[in-house]
Structures are given as structure tokens and as C-alpha cells.
Design brief:
Number of strands: 0
Number of helices: 4
Helix content: over 70%
Radius of gyration: 16 Å
Strand content: under 5%
Order of helices and strands: HHHH
Largest sheet: none
Structural class: mainly alpha
Amino acid sequence: MPILGVILGHRISLWVGRIGPWIAGGLLIAIGVKMLRDTLNKRSADSQGQPDPTRGWTLILLSVATSLDALLVGLSLGILGAGILFPAVVIGITASIMTAIGMFLGTGISRAFGRWAEAFGGVVLIVLGIWFVFR
């Protein structure tokens, strides 16, 4: 998905020209804000109980949401004219490692750090988005 996003981003960048960094920054800020909002909403949802995220439609929707996030990050990189090989490899390796960790230690890590890790990721994306806009 990030590679597809970069391809689309390169094509879009021909049309958007100088406002490309503003669009890329805005997309990253929007993703970061969404992650922070989702983190805050999980607090109230945790007390109500949630469906099992490893089954049925919940799994499909989570997979699509994750893929769309990667597509938007790739789109932002493409608009900026950044290369994709290194970011795609890093995204792939990070996703693989985090999936393995999640499979082996998921329950304990999720209880201890899950919400905070997602919030931290959101803050990082917001900072990157601001940097893209004002660099």
C-alpha cells in the first residue's frame, strides 16, 4: 500500500506543484489526529467490552484501516517526491516485527502499552506533518 500511495502521490504532485508539502503535511496530521482520537475513544469503549478483533468483519475492517493508513503515508511521500524503497522496507519490517510481538506477547503488552504506543505514533505523525508544512 505505501508503494501504491507513492505512485499515486508522484502523479498527483505534477498537478499540485508547490502546495504538495501542505497536502502531504495535512494528510500526516490528519492520520495522527485520527490515531490520537481513536486512542481516547478506546478508553470509553474498553469499559463496555468490544468484539474479538481477530474474527469476522472486525478483522477485515481493521485490515482495511491499516492498509489505508499505509496508503496515505505513501501518498504523502509521493507528493513530496521522496523515494519509496527504504520507507516500504522499513514499514514492512516494522509491521512484521510488531505482528510477531503482538502474537506472542499481545495481551500483556496491549494492557500495559497499547494505548500509549498508538498515542505516541499519532504524535510522531503530527510532528512530521507540521515539519513538512513549515520546512
